[in-house]
Each structure stands twice: as structure tokens, then as C-alpha cells.
Amino acid sequence: MRPEVRVTAEWALWGKPPDARDDYEVLECSRGNLGRDEFSEIMTRYAPGTPTELPQVTISWFGGGDSAHLGLAIQKWSGQQDGLGRDIAITRYFCVPYRQAADGPVSYEALYDAFDGRELWAGAPLTVDVPALDLQAIAERVDKAAKSAAALLLTGEPVCVVRGESLSMRERLRFLDVVAALLPYGLRARLTASTWTDSSARHRIKLSFAKRARDGAHSVTWDADDVVSSRNDVTSRYVKLLDRYPCDELVSRLAEKTAPLSFKDAGPVLALLDGPSNSAPPVPAGWGALARSEVGDILNACADRLEHGGHGELEKFLLRLGRLPIPWPSTDDEQNHRREIIKRGGLLSEQPALSWDLKELLYDVILTVGYGPTLTLEGVNHPLDDAGTPTRTLVEAMLRMKCAPGVALKLVFRLDGESRTRALRSLRTGDLVRAAVREPFDPSTLSIVCQELVTRGSGAEDPEIAPALREHGYLAAAVEQAFPHGDARLSCLRKLLIAAYGPTLERGAFDEVVGSPLTPCSATLIIAAVSLYGPDAPNALVSGLLDHARLTAESRAHVLDLLAPRPDDPPAPRGWLSGRVLLWTHRHEPEAARPEQLRPARPGHRQDEPLWPIWAKVGLGATFLVAVVVAVVIRFW
Amino acid sequence: MTELIRLRRALAEAVAELAGPRSLTVVEVTAEGLTAFDMHRDETGTPRGRGRATVPWAEPAGERGRDIADVFSARRAVLDAVGMPADGTVVLMGSSPGSPRADEAMEWLRAAHPDAPAFTRADMCARALLREIVADEPLCRSYELVVLKRHPATDRLEFTCRQLFPIEARRGDPSSAFTVRCEPSGERGTAFAVVAWRDRRPALLSVQTVKVPPGRYEITAELERPGRVRFSGLPDLVRDDQDWAELVASVPARFDPPAGPAHLICAVETTGTDAQVRERLRRIGQMITTVSDGVESRLRVSLVAYGVHSYQRGVPEAPVDVAGWQISAEQARYSLEDLEERLKKRGTLSQGYAGAAMVEDMLAEVVSRLSDGGGERTVLLTVGDRPPHPPRADPSEILPCPHRIDWVQQVRRLERYPGLAFGAICDRPPERVDPVWSQLGRGGLAQLDAVDVQGLGAALGLAVPRVQRIPFPLIEVP
Amino acid sequence: MYSDPGQSARSDHNIAIWGAPGSGKTTFLAALNIALIRKNGPWRVVGADGPSIDFLSEMTSALSQHQRFPPATGALGHYRWFLSRSPEQGRRGWLRRRRQARAWKIGLDVLDAPGGFFRAERAGYGTDREELLDNLASSRGIVFLFDPIRESKDGDAFAYLHGVLADLAGRMLATDEYDDGMLPHHLAICITKFDELRVLQTADKLSLLTPDPDDPHRFPRVAAEDAEELFQALSTVSASGNADMVLPALKQFFRPDRIKFFVTSSIGFYLDQRKGVFDPDDFQNLIPETPGGAGGQENSRAAPGNRFRIRGQARPINVMEPMLWLGRRMSSGKNAGEGDG
User: Fold this and answer.
1) Which site among A298, A328, A356, A357 would you substitute to test the B interface, given the most B Cβ atoms closer than 10 Å to its Cβ?
2) Interface of A with C in 445-474 (CB under 8 A)
3) Which pLDDT value is given to residue A282?
4) ipTM value
């Protein structure tokens, strides 16, 4: 859908009543600035001649400066006959202020479509929305005949397009549009054109299809293979200028030139195109010639409709704004100006009267125009501040925007219940984990996050879970805080580890968990890791710890020696404690420098000999567990 | 339980719950678009459904991708297509999981109708499914046949009903067999009307008619589905949409048994629009039916069609067409149909001379054929609109008859024919007819749109027999 | 391909057609070619530019082949024609032929305005009225069509005459150029629609019908000298009663020696080919058609179909004569030695 402009047309109906024996007259007209006499004069002035084939459309103009108007006359058979048995042709004439048409700008075809078939109510001028010029479509239709006609029109003499008899009225109207589009839009304030004229009639139509060119008129052949060349300097110069630009750039440049111009002086017209090719800023696709300042106007209009309940119009304005290409280049001043309007107009405040989808559209559009296209960490508070009391719908709309890292996380916590869950679900895994450890701590978030991580880990494997968890100590601290009971903690951490690594830990994963910077809350985590590793866990644990301790060979041997099974001498807790301290301060060694893998690649498949006999393992394991628990308890107390 | 079974069950329940203003909207979302089906229960208790036009998905956006406004418009289109039924259930069924458009639309619909059951893997088209479900529904009203009963003593005719199917009957249930008597009926035949009863109030379900010779008929009724009953034992019945009140009103108060020789000459103008010509022929048909009296009628009918003179080079003119002369009423009806068929083939006679028709030629033809005869009542009924051509250039500016026939002379000759009456049915109201028509209709002039056929027949001195058309079957009273 | 606006030669013999709406101005022009062809005389009409050639050929085939009338004129039409007379056989002297070829060619610039342009109350419409007056002022010949049928129904011939006439006189006579105070135009007053029963009957009642012994079809005619009498008789049958002012109004401004009356019919009487002679019982050549027939539907691309059609062949009466009269009178001042038609 293209943006639309609203135009108000005065109109007249030119014809005669059935069985009338008199000539054509104004049968009916709107009550505005023009009266019957004025309409009659216009109709007579721009009569294309005696009709043979209808419908036909004639384009005309009247007035200058602020009162310049474009006229469009649609002539059709009425299906009735006059008193002398002759068919009656009814002409519906519409005139719109040139300024309104240039605002789109709009094509003749679009005006025709907007007016044709409209019911006319006595007295009332007609207000219609007309889509803006489809530059792309026009550019695709540019051909040599159109270029010839456009260039010849600049001589000020009329141009007749011949051999177009087989074309439909719409095809001819489109051609007129293309020719007009190859001239600055401003010339439409003085262009008369018709899809057909009678060359024997003394008409005032500059550009028209006709059977033959009339006296004093240039002739252009429809579908001609060559661009006409003329002895007239203006024509040849203009043809050269037209050929200088690619069609789409040409029509978009010319469409921008909406200041009224005259055919009497070709100089300014030539000068418009005679500049450097890329001097003009590109017209954004689909945006027509909507000036930046108009964004503010539309925002104001939106605020006005919000206040006074014009929801249908609000929707149109929003859709128009919604076409704003992204990124829309705007300065800080512009942005601030828009924010000011948004704030003052309460465009982001709660809107109970709007339907939910219109509300979404409102927020989506206003956020993009006022704060977009990307919501930054610095900017995230702006819409919230400007909204006064931000609603859930607003926050959800903000989440739909393109967000800089961390922004979504910040926003999620402005939501609750189902909507928060939904929002969390849409977060990246890293952000999700970060959300769980966010201060102030919120146990309910943790459980949602855990649930979500478990869900993500259970389906398709999510490779991001493990690194994200590791970065945040596997959430051990948060779990500790959330669950008073050890069993519940263990269960939760086990689920997290399963989500990250699968139902059994491989040695590498085990080392990752155990080797992560320990916190005072790591006990349950280690237990959880151990429980997922299998019976050889104590061995692996010690071995892992020793590896991380970066001891010299002698110290390592000494420690192992101390740990050697002596039935009468249970291991002292102190030694374990010192080991822990070492571990807390250790740094990971590079992968290559690690000792050989002690654990096979696949769980349950052993390659090497056990370090210690079974009984020693059991004893050592139990002792280790007791020691860790004691250490934790001491720490807490 | 598969999704389809669950869906079928949900739909069957929803259909069963339909009552009064309560409605059901079934939304089918496919890869191509969205179709909403509206179901309600009509006054006969039959679930009726109507599929709205499929709303296709918006064209995929170009390279630019969809912007906010596109998504908004697309969603608005989807939601608008379904609407917000005030008093109704909505069921969502997606038949194309995996189609991004369809999935997206389902998502929007779910959000807008959170209470609506949604089925995403329905492998069956909603139209067929709904049709099946409705067909399998048990009846919620009893279905009965409208019949007439003749009072043995007074001969009065009374309406009564004979049950065909009780409440809870389903399709495939045993059919119902009974015997009725059909009497001579109207143009359309005997009407087999089925009504649905509820709380002592009947609602008309269907009217099917058949033209059969009078006699006893063994009939079997079979329930095809709720709302449709099929009768066998009779030639093909056809659905009849005539006005029920009119049909009921056409039943005579009593059933009585069967009037002198007459000759009705119907002359019809075949110019004008198809509708005008058809209407004129229909009026002639009515007149023949009204004044004839079955097989034993002593009425003879003649049928003459006339058009326009051609004043155009190379365009031949159709002469006066005597489609039947002194034939029976029954034959005349066939000739009338035949004439209509021929005219239809020839197309509208909108071309040719506009201001008059060859009335004078028609009159001359009738005069020449009536020369030997007489004695019986003879009526010339002219049905048309245009005046005749004058015999020479005339202030009326109507071109003269190419054969220079003077219609005034022809009328005078007919006036001399013993027992002849002039009747006319003109397209225009009497105050606007050409003075010629006042002469052609001096015994009775009516306007085409408002003919009291019986009254006109009577005014023209044709014996109008008492109407004894029994439009419903009679049930024999033991 | 070079494009230059085309310009065709202009004639200084401008003839304007003047008449109320529906009085048959365009049909009169359309019938001119047929009249000249049927006459089988030395005169022919030739278009001087493309659109004028088109008009001649289209209208000739509309009237003769399709038996249809031209539609209501929508804008001021301008046709450039030449009435040319082929040199007579037998006089093949080299010098003579050259001289004749130049002298026997009358240029006609004909203006056909929508009838409404002439309406007295239409003074407010500005541009079209001005243009019309410009054209009338630059013309030297006027064909004034008096439609007795319209006059009996609407009675507005005077209304379509006096306003424009007053304006024209005001404009042209304000200067001293025309010292006799009369307009310089030659005026052919044509009583149209002679083929209509009422006109023919009136002429018959006044015993103005004279047979033309040279006419194999024996069509009735009103001699030029009797035409004014018929005009006056028909003027009395006016719906408004104003028609009797038409002639005095014209005579006030045009020199009597420059006025000539013609009783005309653009389509003429119907002739039954089998009989080959005029039938007083059946002569109407205008025939109504059923509405909604061939054309006239809304949005139809087809050519409009009028409700009236020509029944037989168009056999124009006194259509060529006023034009030749005007052409000859206008060029008589400039070209000596022209022949008769």
C-alpha cells in the first residue's frame, strides 16, 4: 500500500436531462467556491470536441498561486437520449486544489480511480484519499513516444498522439501520466490533456490522443521506435536531459518538483534537470515526497485523533508513518522534536479506548519513529519516561523492536506473569541466564529461567547453555538462595547440568563444572556434577582438583601419598581446606598443557587402571564429602 | 485419539449446541488463505452453514520485507475475515501446518479468540467435514408431510399432517411408506411439503412438486440428511419456491366435480424486451387455463403472433405468425410454449421500427380466417403495446403500413362478425394507452401488470369454470 | 523523425452555421458532400486539412452507409473545405484551363458551434461566446438554420438569434467601417426539415409546391422565390409566438440584397427504390428505433446509436445551393469570371 493524500474536490455534472431539446448544461454541482457559471465556463473551455467513443478523461486546470486547481473530467454515455434522439454524454468534472494533489504527489490515474463511480451528493464537495504516485510503475512505462511528447510540450505547442485508437481509455490515461511524469510535477498546474480529442474542434487541450494532429500541433506516434527530434532547440535539449538519467531516478526527481511552473517559459524546466545527476537526495522508496517536517505534522495529527477519538483516521496516519523507511536519517534535533510531540500528545500512554491491534500498531509505529530504529541501552528509558506510566503493551512493543544487547533483559522485568514468561522465551540463552542472576534477586525468575533452560536443553541441543551457565557459576549461588533445602537445590542444579551437557557428564564437562571458579555455594553443584558422573566420581574429582591445583610433581606425589589409604588414620579436614583455598585462586591452564585425559570420551567406557582400590575410593569419597560440607558450613558461619 | 477425531467431536458438539441466535464460526486456515464458515440452526431446526469467500494471504512483500504497517494490515485482514461473533462459538482449524502464513494467521487468531478450540493438524477440508457432521446429526424436530383430508359429508378440505420421521431419527433410518391420492393440480403440480414440528408449531422445511395424472400413489420417504427428504414412488419431484401462503390459499374450500363452445383468438405482439413478451405470453396462458375446463372443455383457441414491419434495407420482416387456429386448450398451451421457445431463439425484437407494430396485418389475417364460421362466442384478445401503422403518411408520424392495410377497416369487418367481442391486455395503464387500444379492448381492457384474468374472461362472455385444483396430496380417510 | 506543427492553407471565405440546438447544423454540413455527389454536377467538396477530410468521409458514410445522424456537437468545430468545380469538357485550351482552375475553386472555412453557444442568456460563459463572436465577425457568409419543427415545440429561434446578433452588430458596427450601418455578411436563411410531414403539408396548403421537371424522382420543391412566404407561414406556428420577430431582426442588420431563403432538407424524402418516384402517401425518411438497441449503453466503446435513423437513402434538398450561393457571392468581389453551378 502506498501512502495516501486526502484531497477535497468541488464537482459538477455536465449533461442534459433525457429528452431535453437544449444544449449541454451544468445539471448539478457542489456548493463551494465555484458556481454554475464558473463550472459552465470551465466545461466549455476544456471541451475536447464532439464525442465518438466514450469513456474519455480530460485533464485541465484553472487558477494560479494558492488557488491553482487541477481538473479532471470523466465523460461517459448516460445510456439516455436527448429530445432529438441523440445519445447523451454525461461529464463528471472534479477539481482539486493543486497543492493537495502536489502533496502526494498523485497521478491522474489515481485521481480518476478515486473519483470514478463516486456517488455525488448534492451540495457537498467530495473528500477522497488518493494514493501517491507509484514512481516505480511510472518509470517502467516510460517509452520513446512519452519522451517525445514530453519534450515537444515544452515548445508550448499542442501535441497529438496518433495511432492510439486501439488502446483502452485507461492505457491512454496512463500514457498521459507517463508524459506528465517526464515533466516537472509543477507543470501539471498548467497542463491540459485528454485521452481523446476531436481535431476538427477548436479545443484547448495541449496533450491528447487524436485521430490526426490538428493544425498547429505536433504529432507523436504511439509506440514510436524513435524519439522525435525537433528543430526546436528546447525539445532536443530536453530529450538529451531525459536520456541522461535512469528512468526511475528521472521520474522521482521530476515528481519532487512540485512548485507550479508554466509552459510559456521552458528555461526553468530545463534548469531543473540540468544539475549534477546525484545532487538531489534520493527519495526513499514508497515515501513519495513526504518532507521530514511532515513526520511531526502527522505525529501531531495522531495525537489529535487519539484525543478526539478519530480512530479510522488515526489508523491511516499510523500506516502512513509506518511506511517510514528504516533507517530513517534524522538528527538529534528532529528526534527530540518528535519525542516532545509524543510525550505531549500522550502517544505512548495507556489507551484503553483503542482496539488491541490498533494499540499495537500505535506503539510499534511511534516507537520506531520516535526512538528507533534500534533501542539502545541508553535510550531504553526514553519511551518509558515519555509514556508516564508504561503499560504492559508498551513494554511488549518495545521488546518487538530491534534491541541492543541487554535492553531486552532490562525490559523483561517490567513484565510479569505470562507475558514475562513469553518474553523470557524469546530471549537469547545468554541473556536468559543473566536474567536469573540479576539483582535484586527474584526466586520466581530463577525458576522460570531454569524451566526455560531445561526446555531448551531437552529438545534440540542448545550449545549456548553450557558456556552461559559456566559464566555464571552454573547459577549455584542463585539456586542456593532460592531453595532452602539441599535436596531441592541438588535437583535443580542436576537439571541445569543435564540441560547443558546431557544426562551423563563426560570427563571434560565434569572438569568444566568442577573447575569453574568455586563460590561458597559450590557444594551442591559439585555434588550434582558428581552424581551425574557415576561411580568413579571421587577419583575424578580429586584428580580434577589436583590438576587445577597446578602443584609440582613432588607436592602432587606428596598429596597423593597423604591420601593413600591408611585404615587407622583418617584424612584430616585441614588438608582439604588448604586444597580448596588453592583451588579458589587457580587459573585454568591452557588445554594443551593439561595432563592426559583420565576419563574416556564416552561415559562408562574405561581405558585406564583405577588409581585406588574400591574400598579406598568409597572411604575417600565419603571423607571428601564430609570435608566439603564442613567447609561450607564453616564458611557460612 | 487423533487430531481429526478430536476435531470431529468438537465440531459435532458445537453443531449440537446451536440453537436460536447462537452461531458457530469454523475458521479454516490453509496455505492459500482463510475461510470462515458460519453455522446456525434455521427455524426448522436444521443446521445451515455458509462458507464466506476465502480471504487469500496478502502478497508476500518484496525485497523490502514486511514493515509494521504490512503486518498490521495482514493481521487486520485475518481478524476482520473472522469477525467477533457476538453470540457464538469459534473453532479454529489449520490444515497446513508449516506454512508460515498459515501459522502466523493461526497465532493471531488464537490471540484474538483465546477460548476457541484450535486444531492445527486437521487433514480434512472444513467444508466436507461440516457437511458430514451435519448429515450425521439426529433430527431435533419431527418431520411431517402436509396432506389434505376431504370431509366425507361436507366435502370440505382440511389440512393435516402425516409423520415421516420422529425426533432423533438419523439418515439411514428405515424409510416411511404411505399412500396418497393426487387430484388435478395447478400449473406446477401437486406439492409435497414437509414441515418440522416443534412445540406444536410447524416450520416449512421443503416443498417439492410433481405433475402426475390423478390417482393413488404408494410413496416412500427417505431421510437423506437433516433438512432433506427424498420421495420415491413418483416421477422426479422438483424443488418449488412458490409462496407458501399463496399455495395454501390456492386450496379450494371444498372439492366439487366440472361449461358452451367458445373460440378465443389470442393475438400477441412479439416486440419489446424478452421480459415483456414473456409476460404477455404468460397472461395468454393464464387466460386459456382460466377459461378452459380440463379435458372436456369445449373451448377452441387460436394463437396469432405479430411483430414489426421492417423499414430497413436488407432486413426481412417476419410476417404474422398463426401458431394455432381453432385448437384445443391443451394444444394451445403447447403452441404457446413452442412460440416462446421460437421467440427466445430469435432473440429480443428490440430492433426494427420503434413506434408501431403490425396490428393491421394481424387484424387482416384474423378477418380472412374468420370468414367462414360463426355462431359460437368468439373473442379477439389482443395482447401488446404499440399502435398499428396508418395506411398512409399521417400526422402521428408513424410510417405507413407497407401493405397499405387500413386497420380501421379491418376492425369494422370484425365488428360485423356475429358474436365477436374485443378484449385487450395492454402493457400500459388504461389512462396512457393509445386510443387504438381502447377500440381493440372495447369489451374489456386490462393492463399487463394487473390483469384480473377471471374478470376479463367473464367480461368477454367466456364461461369461467369453478377452479378445482388441489395443490396438495389427499390422504384417504378410513 | 522531425516534428513540426502542421499548418494548412487558410481560406478567407469563412462561413458560419447559425441555429438553435438540434436544428441540424452538423447534419447540414454532413449532407453537403452527398448533395454534391448526387447532383452529379461539376462541383465537389474537398477537405483542406486532415480533420476536415475525416469529417467529410466519416459523415458521408454515417449518413449514407450507416444511416445515422451525427451526435450533438461538443465544441466549436472548424472545417476547411474547398468547393471546386471541374473544368467543363470540350474547352481544352491550355490558357483557358489554367485560368479556370484557379477561378473555380471557392475556399470555405466552416464553423460549427454547439447550438447552446447562440443562446441569449449564455452571455456569462465568457470564452465560448467571445470566440463565437470572433468567428462570426471574421465570417462573410452565414447559414442561418430555421427549424420549423423545433419552433412549433419550443419557439426559441428568436432566443437563439437576438442575443448573438446584438453582440455581433455592437462589435462590428461600432466602427465606421460599415457606413450603411448594416452587417457585411451574406445570409442564407434555410428552412430545415422540409421532409417532415407538417412542413410539407404547410407548403402544400399554401400551394407553394412546384414539381421539378428535371427531377426523375418528382420530389416536391419550393422555389427560392416562394421560400420567404413559407418561412413567414411557418413563423406563425411558434410555441412562443416570437418567431415572427426573427425575420425583422435579421433584416434590421443584414442588407436585403444579401439575404436569400432556401427550403432545405438534409436527408430528403424517402424513395421506394421499386417505384422510383416520390410517393405522397409514404415519404418520411426519418425512422425511430427502439431505445437500447444498437448503441447508447453506458461506457460502451461502440459508436453511439441514435434513436433516429435514416430510413432509405439520404437525398439532400437545397444543401449544396446555399453553400454555392454564399461561396459565389463572397468570392464575386475578389474573383471575376466565375461560372454558375
Assistant:
1) A357
2) none
3) 38
4) 0.78
